[in-house]
Amino acid sequence: MLRKAILAAAESPRMQRGVRRHGMRLGAARFVAGESLDQAVGVLRGLNDKGLLANTTLLGEGVNDETETRVVVESYKEILDRIAAEKLGVNVALKLTHLGLGFDEQFARANIGELVAHAAQLGNFVRLDMEESAFVDATLRVYRSLREEGHENVGTVLQSYLYRTPGDLEALLDLSPNLRFVKGAYLEPPNLAYPEKSFVDSAYASLVERSLSAGGFTAIATHDTALIAQAIAHAKANGIGRDRFQFQMLYGVRGKLQLDLVAKGYDVLVATPYGPDWYRYLMRRLAERPANVLFIAKNMIRR
Description:
By secondary structure, the chain is of the alpha/beta class. The protein has a single domain, classed as TIM Barrel, CATH 3.20.20. It has twelve helices and eight strands. An eight-stranded parallel β-barrel has the order 1-2-3-4-5-6-7-8, surrounded by seven helices. The protein is globular.
Protein backbone atom coordinates (compact mmCIF):
# COMPACT_ATOMS: atom_id res chain seq x y z
CA MET A 1 0.00 0.00 0.00
CA LEU A 2 2.88 2.38 0.79
CA ARG A 3 4.42 1.67 -2.61
CA LYS A 4 1.13 2.39 -4.39
CA ALA A 5 0.67 5.61 -2.45
CA ILE A 6 4.17 6.85 -3.30
CA LEU A 7 3.82 5.96 -6.98
CA ALA A 8 0.48 7.76 -7.11
CA ALA A 9 2.13 10.79 -5.50
CA ALA A 10 4.75 10.69 -8.25
CA GLU A 11 2.06 11.89 -10.67
CA SER A 12 0.65 14.59 -8.37
CA PRO A 13 1.49 18.16 -9.55
CA ARG A 14 0.71 19.53 -6.09
CA MET A 15 3.02 17.07 -4.35
CA GLN A 16 5.70 17.72 -6.96
CA ARG A 17 5.66 21.46 -6.28
CA GLY A 18 6.13 20.89 -2.55
CA VAL A 19 8.86 18.29 -2.82
CA ARG A 20 10.79 20.14 -5.52
CA ARG A 21 10.92 23.23 -3.32
CA HIS A 22 12.99 21.49 -0.64
CA GLY A 23 13.80 18.02 -2.00
CA MET A 24 17.49 18.43 -2.80
CA ARG A 25 18.15 19.77 0.69
CA LEU A 26 16.03 17.06 2.31
CA GLY A 27 18.01 14.23 0.74
CA ALA A 28 17.22 13.93 -2.97
CA ALA A 29 20.90 14.66 -3.62
CA ARG A 30 21.68 11.20 -2.25
CA PHE A 31 20.06 9.68 -5.36
CA VAL A 32 20.54 12.42 -7.96
CA ALA A 33 23.94 13.74 -9.07
CA GLY A 34 22.88 17.37 -9.05
CA GLU A 35 20.75 19.48 -11.37
CA SER A 36 23.44 20.42 -13.91
CA LEU A 37 25.86 18.52 -16.14
CA ASP A 38 28.82 20.17 -14.40
CA GLN A 39 27.62 18.82 -11.05
CA ALA A 40 27.04 15.37 -12.52
CA VAL A 41 30.51 15.21 -14.08
CA GLY A 42 32.10 15.68 -10.67
CA VAL A 43 30.05 12.81 -9.21
CA LEU A 44 30.75 10.56 -12.19
CA ARG A 45 34.48 11.15 -11.97
CA GLY A 46 34.37 10.29 -8.28
CA LEU A 47 32.68 6.97 -9.07
CA ASN A 48 35.28 6.15 -11.73
CA ASP A 49 38.06 6.97 -9.27
CA LYS A 50 36.65 4.23 -6.99
CA GLY A 51 36.76 1.65 -9.78
CA LEU A 52 33.08 1.93 -10.62
CA LEU A 53 31.62 2.38 -14.08
CA ALA A 54 28.55 4.56 -14.49
CA ASN A 55 25.76 5.63 -16.74
CA THR A 56 24.01 8.95 -16.64
CA THR A 57 20.53 10.09 -17.57
CA LEU A 58 19.14 13.57 -18.09
CA LEU A 59 16.03 13.11 -16.01
CA GLY A 60 12.74 13.63 -17.78
CA GLU A 61 10.03 11.75 -19.67
CA GLY A 62 6.66 12.22 -21.30
CA VAL A 63 7.68 15.11 -23.59
CA ASN A 64 4.85 15.90 -26.03
CA ASP A 65 6.35 18.71 -28.05
CA GLU A 66 8.71 18.30 -31.02
CA THR A 67 10.67 21.46 -30.27
CA GLU A 68 11.23 20.47 -26.64
CA THR A 69 12.21 16.97 -27.74
CA ARG A 70 14.87 18.33 -30.07
CA VAL A 71 16.32 20.27 -27.12
CA VAL A 72 16.60 16.93 -25.29
CA VAL A 73 18.41 15.35 -28.27
CA GLU A 74 20.94 18.19 -28.37
CA SER A 75 21.40 17.93 -24.60
CA TYR A 76 22.27 14.25 -24.92
CA LYS A 77 24.78 15.03 -27.66
CA GLU A 78 26.37 17.51 -25.26
CA ILE A 79 26.45 14.83 -22.55
CA LEU A 80 28.12 12.32 -24.88
CA ASP A 81 30.65 14.92 -26.04
CA ARG A 82 31.43 15.86 -22.44
CA ILE A 83 31.92 12.23 -21.43
CA ALA A 84 34.42 11.82 -24.26
CA ALA A 85 36.22 15.06 -23.46
CA GLU A 86 36.52 14.13 -19.77
CA LYS A 87 37.55 10.54 -20.65
CA LEU A 88 34.96 9.13 -18.25
CA GLY A 89 33.96 5.47 -17.95
CA VAL A 90 30.33 6.45 -18.43
CA ASN A 91 27.59 5.65 -20.93
CA VAL A 92 24.07 6.98 -21.38
CA ALA A 93 20.61 5.64 -20.52
CA LEU A 94 17.45 7.40 -21.62
CA LYS A 95 13.68 7.08 -21.87
CA LEU A 96 12.12 7.11 -25.31
CA THR A 97 9.18 9.19 -24.08
CA HIS A 98 11.79 11.90 -23.47
CA LEU A 99 12.46 11.70 -27.22
CA GLY A 100 8.83 11.82 -28.36
CA LEU A 101 7.62 8.21 -28.13
CA GLY A 102 4.41 9.31 -26.41
CA PHE A 103 3.15 11.12 -29.52
CA ASP A 104 5.12 9.81 -32.53
CA GLU A 105 7.04 6.54 -32.58
CA GLN A 106 8.80 7.28 -35.87
CA PHE A 107 9.90 10.69 -34.61
CA ALA A 108 11.31 9.05 -31.46
CA ARG A 109 12.99 6.39 -33.63
CA ALA A 110 14.69 9.07 -35.71
CA ASN A 111 15.84 10.91 -32.58
CA ILE A 112 17.31 7.86 -30.90
CA GLY A 113 18.94 6.74 -34.16
CA GLU A 114 20.69 10.11 -34.31
CA LEU A 115 21.94 9.74 -30.74
CA VAL A 116 23.08 6.13 -31.12
CA ALA A 117 25.05 7.11 -34.24
CA HIS A 118 26.60 10.06 -32.40
CA ALA A 119 27.55 7.79 -29.49
CA ALA A 120 29.12 5.27 -31.89
CA GLN A 121 31.37 7.96 -33.33
CA LEU A 122 32.63 8.56 -29.79
CA GLY A 123 32.98 4.88 -28.91
CA ASN A 124 30.08 5.05 -26.47
CA PHE A 125 26.88 3.13 -25.72
CA VAL A 126 23.21 4.04 -25.27
CA ARG A 127 20.66 2.10 -23.23
CA LEU A 128 16.93 2.44 -23.96
CA ASP A 129 15.25 2.40 -20.56
CA MET A 130 11.92 0.63 -20.24
CA GLU A 131 8.83 2.50 -19.10
CA GLU A 132 5.20 1.64 -18.35
CA SER A 133 3.71 -1.45 -19.96
CA ALA A 134 1.96 0.72 -22.57
CA PHE A 135 5.37 1.54 -24.08
CA VAL A 136 6.98 -1.92 -24.02
CA ASP A 137 6.04 -2.97 -27.55
CA ALA A 138 7.13 0.33 -29.09
CA THR A 139 10.43 0.34 -27.17
CA LEU A 140 11.23 -3.19 -28.27
CA ARG A 141 10.34 -2.34 -31.88
CA VAL A 142 12.70 0.62 -31.80
CA TYR A 143 15.46 -1.47 -30.24
CA ARG A 144 15.11 -4.21 -32.84
CA SER A 145 15.10 -1.72 -35.71
CA LEU A 146 18.31 -0.13 -34.40
CA ARG A 147 20.05 -3.49 -34.12
CA GLU A 148 18.83 -4.67 -37.52
CA GLU A 149 20.15 -1.42 -38.99
CA GLY A 150 23.59 -2.44 -37.75
CA HIS A 151 23.92 -0.49 -34.50
CA GLU A 152 25.81 -2.61 -31.97
CA ASN A 153 26.21 0.11 -29.33
CA VAL A 154 22.65 0.01 -28.03
CA GLY A 155 20.81 -2.04 -25.42
CA THR A 156 17.47 -2.06 -23.68
CA VAL A 157 15.76 -3.18 -20.47
CA LEU A 158 13.35 -5.94 -19.45
CA GLN A 159 11.20 -5.88 -16.30
CA SER A 160 10.68 -9.11 -14.36
CA TYR A 161 7.36 -8.10 -12.81
CA LEU A 162 5.57 -8.22 -16.18
CA TYR A 163 4.11 -11.61 -17.11
CA ARG A 164 5.06 -11.04 -20.75
CA THR A 165 8.80 -10.65 -20.19
CA PRO A 166 9.96 -14.27 -20.71
CA GLY A 167 8.39 -14.15 -24.17
CA ASP A 168 10.00 -10.78 -24.87
CA LEU A 169 13.39 -12.18 -23.90
CA GLU A 170 13.03 -15.19 -26.19
CA ALA A 171 12.02 -12.92 -29.08
CA LEU A 172 15.20 -10.85 -28.65
CA LEU A 173 17.76 -13.64 -28.37
CA ASP A 174 18.42 -13.80 -32.10
CA LEU A 175 20.03 -10.34 -31.76
CA SER A 176 22.61 -11.46 -29.15
CA PRO A 177 21.20 -8.52 -27.20
CA ASN A 178 22.67 -6.31 -24.50
CA LEU A 179 19.92 -6.41 -21.87
CA ARG A 180 19.53 -4.91 -18.43
CA PHE A 181 17.17 -6.78 -16.12
CA VAL A 182 15.22 -4.87 -13.49
CA LYS A 183 12.28 -5.80 -11.30
CA GLY A 184 10.09 -2.88 -12.39
CA ALA A 185 9.24 0.48 -10.84
CA TYR A 186 5.84 1.42 -12.29
CA LEU A 187 2.37 0.85 -10.89
CA GLU A 188 0.92 -1.90 -13.07
CA PRO A 189 -2.41 -3.76 -12.69
CA PRO A 190 -2.39 -7.40 -11.45
CA ASN A 191 -3.53 -8.67 -14.86
CA LEU A 192 -0.20 -7.46 -16.31
CA ALA A 193 2.31 -7.76 -13.47
CA TYR A 194 3.05 -9.99 -10.50
CA PRO A 195 1.61 -8.34 -7.38
CA GLU A 196 3.81 -10.34 -4.98
CA LYS A 197 7.53 -9.68 -4.45
CA SER A 198 8.40 -13.38 -4.22
CA PHE A 199 7.07 -14.01 -7.74
CA VAL A 200 8.91 -10.97 -9.10
CA ASP A 201 12.16 -12.19 -7.55
CA SER A 202 11.70 -15.72 -8.89
CA ALA A 203 10.97 -14.39 -12.37
CA TYR A 204 14.03 -12.14 -12.13
CA ALA A 205 16.37 -15.03 -11.31
CA SER A 206 14.99 -17.14 -14.15
CA LEU A 207 15.32 -14.33 -16.69
CA VAL A 208 18.91 -13.59 -15.71
CA GLU A 209 19.91 -17.24 -15.92
CA ARG A 210 18.26 -17.64 -19.31
CA SER A 211 19.99 -14.52 -20.62
CA LEU A 212 23.39 -15.56 -19.28
CA SER A 213 23.08 -19.00 -20.87
CA ALA A 214 21.80 -17.71 -24.21
CA GLY A 215 24.63 -15.32 -25.08
CA GLY A 216 24.79 -11.59 -25.56
CA PHE A 217 25.46 -9.36 -22.57
CA THR A 218 23.50 -9.38 -19.32
CA ALA A 219 23.29 -6.36 -17.03
CA ILE A 220 22.06 -7.57 -13.64
CA ALA A 221 20.46 -4.50 -12.08
CA THR A 222 19.62 -5.35 -8.49
CA HIS A 223 20.70 -4.61 -4.93
CA ASP A 224 19.39 -7.99 -3.73
CA THR A 225 22.36 -9.98 -2.44
CA ALA A 226 20.56 -13.31 -2.84
CA LEU A 227 19.86 -12.65 -6.52
CA ILE A 228 23.44 -11.45 -7.03
CA ALA A 229 24.82 -14.60 -5.42
CA GLN A 230 22.52 -16.76 -7.53
CA ALA A 231 23.70 -15.07 -10.74
CA ILE A 232 27.37 -15.51 -9.77
CA ALA A 233 26.81 -19.18 -8.96
CA HIS A 234 25.05 -19.77 -12.29
CA ALA A 235 27.84 -18.07 -14.20
CA LYS A 236 30.52 -20.12 -12.44
CA ALA A 237 28.65 -23.40 -12.88
CA ASN A 238 28.20 -22.80 -16.60
CA GLY A 239 31.60 -21.34 -17.43
CA ILE A 240 30.19 -17.92 -18.29
CA GLY A 241 32.97 -15.34 -18.33
CA ARG A 242 32.82 -12.13 -16.35
CA ASP A 243 33.04 -10.19 -19.59
CA ARG A 244 29.52 -11.43 -20.41
CA PHE A 245 27.76 -9.76 -17.50
CA GLN A 246 27.84 -6.78 -15.20
CA PHE A 247 26.14 -5.74 -11.98
CA GLN A 248 24.30 -2.45 -12.02
CA MET A 249 23.04 -0.46 -9.06
CA LEU A 250 21.64 2.96 -8.28
CA TYR A 251 23.64 5.94 -7.15
CA GLY A 252 23.08 6.38 -3.43
CA VAL A 253 22.00 2.80 -2.76
CA ARG A 254 24.23 0.12 -1.21
CA GLY A 255 27.56 1.77 -1.94
CA LYS A 256 29.51 -0.73 0.15
CA LEU A 257 28.05 -3.65 -1.81
CA GLN A 258 29.11 -1.96 -5.03
CA LEU A 259 32.70 -1.63 -3.85
CA ASP A 260 32.77 -5.17 -2.42
CA LEU A 261 31.85 -6.59 -5.82
CA VAL A 262 34.51 -4.48 -7.52
CA ALA A 263 37.07 -5.78 -5.02
CA LYS A 264 36.08 -9.32 -6.07
CA GLY A 265 36.79 -8.51 -9.70
CA TYR A 266 33.29 -7.88 -11.01
CA ASP A 267 32.28 -4.95 -13.17
CA VAL A 268 29.80 -2.68 -11.39
CA LEU A 269 28.01 0.18 -13.09
CA VAL A 270 26.24 2.85 -11.06
CA ALA A 271 23.17 4.48 -12.59
CA THR A 272 23.73 8.16 -11.85
CA PRO A 273 21.02 10.51 -13.16
CA TYR A 274 20.95 14.27 -12.96
CA GLY A 275 18.79 17.20 -13.97
CA PRO A 276 16.14 19.55 -12.62
CA ASP A 277 13.29 17.15 -13.48
CA TRP A 278 14.18 14.69 -10.72
CA TYR A 279 10.88 14.43 -8.83
CA ARG A 280 9.35 11.31 -10.40
CA TYR A 281 12.69 9.53 -10.34
CA LEU A 282 13.03 10.21 -6.62
CA MET A 283 9.50 9.00 -5.88
CA ARG A 284 10.15 5.71 -7.66
CA ARG A 285 13.29 5.19 -5.59
CA LEU A 286 11.27 5.83 -2.43
CA ALA A 287 8.64 3.35 -3.56
CA GLU A 288 11.23 0.63 -4.12
CA ARG A 289 12.72 0.66 -0.63
CA PRO A 290 11.08 1.78 2.63
CA ALA A 291 14.55 2.62 3.95
CA ASN A 292 14.71 5.40 1.37
CA VAL A 293 11.52 6.91 2.79
CA LEU A 294 13.05 6.83 6.27
CA PHE A 295 16.18 8.55 4.98
CA ILE A 296 14.15 11.47 3.61
CA ALA A 297 11.98 11.59 6.75
CA LYS A 298 15.04 11.82 9.00
CA ASN A 299 16.40 14.72 6.96
CA MET A 300 13.05 16.48 7.26
CA ILE A 301 13.18 16.15 11.05
CA ARG A 302 16.78 17.39 11.22
CA ARG A 303 15.91 20.36 9.08
